[in-house]
């Protein structure tokens, strides 16, 4: 049996306490949402996750999706769960009120996404892709398209997809072949074959709105010749009812390692009617609007699965009796002590916990920046928040999914042999988490985005949006009577990050392969420094609360303990990363291709 | 399609070149086996792996084992493959010639095991468990039992199992409940239920010989009251033919994450006839004889799967066209460059390669020690080799399986989305590799064995069997004109290992939880130092060969490149491990149990 209860206390900590001084300021738009109201939303969302989505997670994995004559069936219970999800207004949570959305902050929405992913990541992809499509249509659709599609998508009556990948091209979209031919009436005939389309075909919604990358007849070669089209499964009539089928067919669904309840489709478009989104040949721009939002959400998948794995592991570690504490029997009344007494089991649980809390804290920071970038009235704040989001998007995507996978694996390890069998659902978390390191741009691509695009942009401006708050924090708190040592350790790691940045900037200017060789280690390094920063901030708050005799002192003591573990056991990895980066590309590139 | 060709050149390097100065001396027993003969055996074994076992690996995963009315069926082709395996004499490769074995050195047998695991790890478990059972019967059986069982097991006509785990006890065998009641005729009636029994029931052999841990009526509580029994599925008649069924039934098989073609059985023993192996209540001793051998073999599983993943990834990286080299287009004749040009893809491939070559080199070293411990005529050598094997057994088991899993995951990552679907077989490697970190003692238990039992034994004597050759090597080669830097880096890591050892010895003496808290990081630390040692040795040989203008210079250049990568990118991890160990147990144990 899989377990999951939304970690509401830590979520409230991230939402209300940790980032109060984030420098982005309050947003008038959200003043209507009192903390009590947001807490109530989170509580309700937690119930939805535990009571509606969790119970069909393991069964969905076992049953998987099926295809018969092009019709895709989701596993038992998914249809009903989706109806409840939609009827509860959850599809609309963070969407624009102009189209029926509730307009809640991303800072809440990301916590909501974490819960949904923790309970059922396969399920999460159906509304998740819709949200990405909504963002792209909002950004690039004509008023007619917005009015025709957004209300249905926001309501969740229709769903969305991103149709990018083709058999010969995933990372390198410049190779794509799907073509779009303009018609007299302003629409386009879209023809081609797409693979790996999540939620490409299913039985949860009345219509599916595909956002398809394709080439116009006069398109330049490569990525500069790609346009984006909106192609519905059924063409809507003027009154919003569904008209004829639009030549989109599902040829097959994939047999995957995990997320088996998510239909991953091969879609064929046969002169299907589509409408241009954005400008001709500028589809990559529209795609990245959607993709960047999705990348943060994919990071959240890693976090959600990590939290689910953690909770499962804790329950088992409390319950399973094996051996005796090395410090002497703790439960002489039982035939053996629960395994949570063993240092190595604690090492695993604390690592999982630190990763989850650290990622959640970073996610909360980034989500507030997303909100500020979208809604702040202050141009400087919008710029700075946008810089921070641009920098952190690849970090959130790659760091969270790497750590989520590691955490899911630790969950299995705590269970021993019982983790490897289907019964407890721990191995499903591993299989489900594995894809997040790959889709929406592999984690290697995230690293390349970070060192290749983000570091150098505007002479390092994006980086400053992160470096400034960190260095200010270190300067302000390096002599803290209780936490000075922690802050100084952060300072050392931050120093290594600064040196690594300078090394990459210097070498990478002359030789882009040097930047490429450093990317993955650099992304992890910046991620660990960010995590150190949020843990040190959290520890500061915790110390204050504990000194003030806060009634919730167990929560704050635990926060402090987790921070200490992070600094003792995880942050030292930054030194190894720094040394690896310093070594440069030579030994990475030396081996002759023929010798592999 | 999965790919695998035995890496014969590197295997020959490990077998004939790398460890010539291992200090264990030559063994008269093996003089009959010329290098040419051994190479021919390896070549033939490679063919068996690629041509017989690999083709049924993916299909076996999809089909899995089935159980109907207690009868277990292996997937299509397994029976035929097993027959070919057996008829080819492969079951008998390393077994004692007294019972029909061919008596080849473990140094060859471990390479053979690597091939079998790379091609089909599920299959490997059927003969693998037999080998473990053979070792236990050789060590603890009466002459009658040896004569009745060993020839059949060595021939592979019968197979073996290890029946340890019960629902309430895995790691902590002291909790086991299966009981054995003595009978008048000297046999015992064994009754109880065992779970997670690999190859517990199947259709490959005529009989299955279970080695079962159980308690005698007068047994003291805990692990000091466990005895080992030989319990066949069918009772053999005096003439060796099969007699009646022995009350052993398979109640169920597990649904597992991977190794689906290996039947993992729940076995019920109902007053089944068994014979005592070894002394009453001393079953743990017999069990560990078998278990220690199995632990090294499980490590080899990690290596084998890592090699299979590497080969699959290299083939794809050469074939898949995406993007252009950061250093300028390499293949302007193609629509894009093969992804092997990208630094981050090379980072993954080089990491996989370094792990595989490093583990193979360590395995070769340990295998030679196993041979020397068993067969050397010199008592001092037997002692020293035995010390080295005792120390390295948990390291091989945990390090190789951790790295094998990481390598399998990198294999998926190189494939991107295509790695996550069933088609290429890369995700199967991940699922198959995951169990090796768990069974035959979780990797946390290996770490505890290392720091709790092995470090302190005989005042650190085991450790000296490793430290002496490493420090001698560093001293002898620190000023090497070409590789001095590499050897000095090894010296630094070795220094960290020595300090970590002293820290654990000092703290752990007073507080065993301190040793427990350090275990996993310490095991990785010693493992990386061992890998650094074998890579530096290999590099020395390579430099000599290259300076001598060896006709195989591409092989030696590749060896040197891989060693350089290891020292640049992987060895620095030792510093982080050292810092984590130094931090001690405090933050690991601080969190209140209720606060998790």
Automatic annotation (TrEMBL), chains A, B:
Residues in Acyl-CoA dehydrogenase/oxidase C-terminal domain copies: 282-450
Role this protein plays: Involved in the assimilation of dimethylsulphoniopropionate (DMSP), an important compound in the fixation of carbon in marine phytoplankton, by mediating the conversion of 3-(methylthio)propanoyl-CoA (MMPA-CoA) to 3-(methylthio)acryloyl-CoA (MTA-CoA).
Organism: Sphingomonas oleivorans
InterPro entries listed in its UniProt record: Acyl-CoA_dh-like_C_dom, Acyl-CoA_Oxase/DH_mid-dom, Acyl-CoA_Oxase/DH_mid-dom_sf, AcylCo_DH-like_C, AcylCo_DH/oxidase_C, AcylCoA_DH/ox_N, AcylCoA_DH/ox_N_sf, AcylCoA_DH/oxidase_NM_dom_sf
Keywords: FAD, Flavoprotein, Oxidoreductase
Cofactors, names only: FAD
Similarity annotation: Belongs to the acyl-CoA dehydrogenase family.
Enzyme class: oxidoreductase
Record's protein name: 3-methylmercaptopropionyl-CoA dehydrogenase
Domain of life: Bacteria
One Gene Ontology MF term: flavin adenine dinucleotide binding
Entry EC no(s): 1.3.99.41
Residue ranges of domain Acyl-CoA dehydrogenase/oxidase N-terminal in the record: 79-156
Pfam families: Acyl-CoA_dh_1, Acyl-CoA_dh_C, Acyl-CoA_dh_M, Acyl-CoA_dh_N
Domain Acyl-CoA oxidase/dehydrogenase middle: 162-271
Domain Acetyl-CoA dehydrogenase-like C-terminal: from-to ranges: 466-592
Reactions listed under catalytic activity: 3-(methylsulfanyl)propanoyl-CoA + oxidized [electron-transfer flavoprotein] + H(+) = 3-(methylsulfanyl)acryloyl-CoA + reduced [electron-transfer flavoprotein]
């Amino acid at each position: 049996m899989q377990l999951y209860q939304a970690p509401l206390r830590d979520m409230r900590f991230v939402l209300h306490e940790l980032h109060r001084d984030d420098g982005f300021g309050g947003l008038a738009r959200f003043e209507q949402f009192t903390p009590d109201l947001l807490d109530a939303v989170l509580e309700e969302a937690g119930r939805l996750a535990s009571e509606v989505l969790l119970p069909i997670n393991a069964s969905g994995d076992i049953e998987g999706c099926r295809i018969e004559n092009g019709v895709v069936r989701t596993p038992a219970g998914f249809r009903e769960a989706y109806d409840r999800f939609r009827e509860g207004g959850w599809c609309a949570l963070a969407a624009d009120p102009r189209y029926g959305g509730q307009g809640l902050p991303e800072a809440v929405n990301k916590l909501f996404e974490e819960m949904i992913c923790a309970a059922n990541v396969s399920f999460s992809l159906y509304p998740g892709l819709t949200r990405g499509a909504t963002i792209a249509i909002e950004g690039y659709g004509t008023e007619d398209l917005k009015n025709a599609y957004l209300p249905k998508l926001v309501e969740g009556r229709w769903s969305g997809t991103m149709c990018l990948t083709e058999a010969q091209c995933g990372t390198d979209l410049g190779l794509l072949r799907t073509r779009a031919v303009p018609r007299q009436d302003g629409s386009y005939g879209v023809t081609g074959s797409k693979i790996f389309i999540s939620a490409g075909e299913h039985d949860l919604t009345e219509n599916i709105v595909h956002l398809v990358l394709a080439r116009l007849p006069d398109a330049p070669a490569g990525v500069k010749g790609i346009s984006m089209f909106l192609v519905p499964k059924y063409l809507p009539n003027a009154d919003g009812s569904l008209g004829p089928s639009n030549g989109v067919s599902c040829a097959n669904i994939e047999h995957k390692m995990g997320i088996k309840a998510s239909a991953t489709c091969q879609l064929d478009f046969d002169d299907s009617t589509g409408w241009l989104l954005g400008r001709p040949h500028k589809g990559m721009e529209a795609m990245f609007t959607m993709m960047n939002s999705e990348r943060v959400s994919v990071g959240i998948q890693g976090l959600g699965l990590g939290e689910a794995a953690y909770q499962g592991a804790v329950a088992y570690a409390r319950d399973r009796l094996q051996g005796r504490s090395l410090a002497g029997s703790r439960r002489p009344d039982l035939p053996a002590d629960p395994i949570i007494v063993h240092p190595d089991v604690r090492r695993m649980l604390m690592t999982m916990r630190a990763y989850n809390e650290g990622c959640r804290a970073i996610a909360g920071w980034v989500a507030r920046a997303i909100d500020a970038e979208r809604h702040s009235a202050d141009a400087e704040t919008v710029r700075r928040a946008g810089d921070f989001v641009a920098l952190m998007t690849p970090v959130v995507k790659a760091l969270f999914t790497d750590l989520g996978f590691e955490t899911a694996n630790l969950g299995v390890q705590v269970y021993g042999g019982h983790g490897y069998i289907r019964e407890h659902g721990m191995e499903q978390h591993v299989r489900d988490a594995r894809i997040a390191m790959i889709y929406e741009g592999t984690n290697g691509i995230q690293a390349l985005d970070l060192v290749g695009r983000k570091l150098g942009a505007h002479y390092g401006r994006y980086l400053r949006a992160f470096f400034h708050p960190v260095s200010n924090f270190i300067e302000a708190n390096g002599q803290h009577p209780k936490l000075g040592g922690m802050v100084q350790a952060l300072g050392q790691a931050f120093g290594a990050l600064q040196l690594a940045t300078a090394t990459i900037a210097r070498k990478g200017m002359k030789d882009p392969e040097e930047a490429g060789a450093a990317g993955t280690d650099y992304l992890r390094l910046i991620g660990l420094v960010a995590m150190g920063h949020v843990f040190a901030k959290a520890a500061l708050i915790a110390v204050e609360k504990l000194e003030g005799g806060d009634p919730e002192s167990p929560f704050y003591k635990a926060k402090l303990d987790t921070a200490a573990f992070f600094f003792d056991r995880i942050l030292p990895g930054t030194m190894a990363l720094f040394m690896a980066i310093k070594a440069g590309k030579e030994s990475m590139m030396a081996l002759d291709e023929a010798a592999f």
